[in-house]
Amino acid sequence: MADPRFREAVALFNAGAWYAAHDGFEELWHETAGPLRPVLQGILQLAVAQLHLERGNRRGATILTGEGLGRLRSAPEQALGLDLVALRTNAGCWLQLLQQDRPLDGAALPPPRLGPALPRTRPEAPGVDR
Q1: How far apart are CA 40 and CA 28, in angstroms?
Q2: Residues 5, 107, 97, 78: is their CA dihedral positive or negative?
Q3: Helix (H) or strand (E) holding 4
C-alpha cells in the first residue's frame, strides 16, 4: 500500500504506540474495500489487543487477539507487503498465553511487529544442478 498513512500506521504499530496505530489502520480500513479490508481490520484488532494488555484488560486482549488472528488467517502471506506469516505466528503465541491464563512477560514474548514481506524463493526445476 503506497499510502503514506499506511507507512505511518506500521511505524506506530512497531513502536508500540497501540492507540495511534489503531487510529491509523482504522482510517485506512474505513476507506478500503475488497480483500485487503479484513487484513487491515485484523492488524488494527491486534493493536487494540495490545492496548488492552497495557491497561490490564486481559479478557479484552484475548478476545481481540483471537478476532484479529481470525481475520488474518485467510490473508495471503504477503498481503500489504507485510510478512503475515510472522505476524500470525506471534499473535498465535500471544493468544495461547492469554487463553491459558499464563503470566505475560514481554521479554519472553515480544509484542507483535509488522515486518516487510520476505522475498519468495522459487522452487528449482527438476534436474537443475547448482
Answers
A1: 8
A2: positive
A3: helix 4-14
